[in-house]
Amino acid sequence: MIVVHHLENSRSQRVLWLLEELGLAYEVKRYERNKQTMLAPPELKAIHPLGKSPVITEDGVTVAETGAIVEYLISRHGGGRLIPPEGSTERLRYVYWLHYAEGSAMTPLLLKLVFSTMPQRAPALMRPLVRGVSRQAEQGFIDPQIKLHADYWESELAKSDWFAGAAFTAADVMMSFPLEAAASRAGAAPGPHVAAFLERIHARPAYRRALERGGPYAYA
Ligand SMILES: N[C@@H](CCC(=O)N[C@@H](CS)C(=O)NCC(=O)O)C(=O)O
Questions:
Q1: Do 59 and 136 fall within a single domain?
Q2: How many angstroms does the Cα of residue 85 sit away from the middle of ligand 1?
Q3: Which residue's CA is the nearest one to ligand 1's atom 19?
Q4: CATH code of residue 144
Q5: pLDDT tens across 72-94, in order?
Q6: In this predicted structure, what is the pLDDT of residue 189?
């Protein structure tokens, strides 16, 4: 049985969604974030040394890192579904977006989260200074980087409904989280093609079922 070690309100929601798209049986072990630090609870370190989510286990095998989990599920259980044919242009695009989602898109979004919440976590006396520093980082680097990526998504989704081409693939599952995170917390309204992509994925029955299995998810 596949077990998903799932942290509330996190990118591990994508793994539940992919499992639903593939129609696979799985068990969800839910973990709650520490309310102060928002970090995962220490029990997750018993599953994987980094203690981050998602992690899946199956038949004594442990797989961490969302992209690696997606590759594992698609190659072991996909039966050719949700992945373009080998050798096609779409396959190359699929591999690109699969890696880009965590490798490039998430970096400025994570920086935004860290810098925008820094003032409220600083001691009251330091707050004006910290606010100045974080604003400088946001305006000088982070926000322009987020815009660069968001404009790129918009222009790519203007060419085709899905990231790898005309067909929905697991690369769209990977890309869902950066797009959702940008739309809900980066402070910039999504462009029309990104907004339409988000509407399309949120309407998928498998996406809705995954939300029911996963519990709190603030990005849908
Ligand atoms: N690139 C990794 C990132 C893993 C990660 O940072 N997960 C977050 C969930 S959004 C987490 O576990 N945060 C809690 C913590 O760091 O303690 C992946 O895609 O699996």
A1: no
A2: 30
A3: 66
A4: 1.20.1050.10
A5: 999 999 999 999 999 999 999 99
A6: 87
Note whether residue 209 is domain-resident. Answer: no
User: Does residue 13 have its Cβ closer than 6 Å to ligand 1?
Assistant: no
Mean pLDDT, the chain, integer: 96
pTM, rounded to two decimals: 0.96
C-beta of 176 in contact with ligand 1 (< 6 A): no
Cβ-contact 6, 53 below 8 angstroms? yes
Q: Which of 60, 83, 106 is the last residue in one of the domains?
A: 83
Distances, alpha carbon 2 to alpha carbons 7, 24, 102, 188, in Å: 16, 9, 23, 37
- In ligand 1, the atom with minimum distance to the C-alpha of 68 is 20
User: How many domains is the chain built from?
Assistant: 2
If you ran DSSP here, which 8-state letter would residue 81 be given? T
Determine the pLDDT at residue 19. Answer: 98
Pocket lining: 52 vs ligand 1, CB cutoff 6 Å: yes
CATH number at residue 14: 3.40.30.10
Q: Which of 216, 219, 204, 218 is nearest to 17 (CA)?
A: 204
Best residue among 10, 35, 52 to mutate for probing ligand 1's pocket (most ligand atoms within 8 Å of CB) is 52
Q: Which numbered atom of ligand 1 lies nearest the CA of 38?
A: 14
Question: Alpha helices of 78-169 — where are they, by DSSP H?
Answer: 89-100, 106-121, 127-137, 143-159
Cis peptide before 190 (omega within 30 of 0): no
Are residues 171 and 154 part of one domain? yes
Which atom of ligand 1 is nearest the CA belonging to 54? Answer: 20
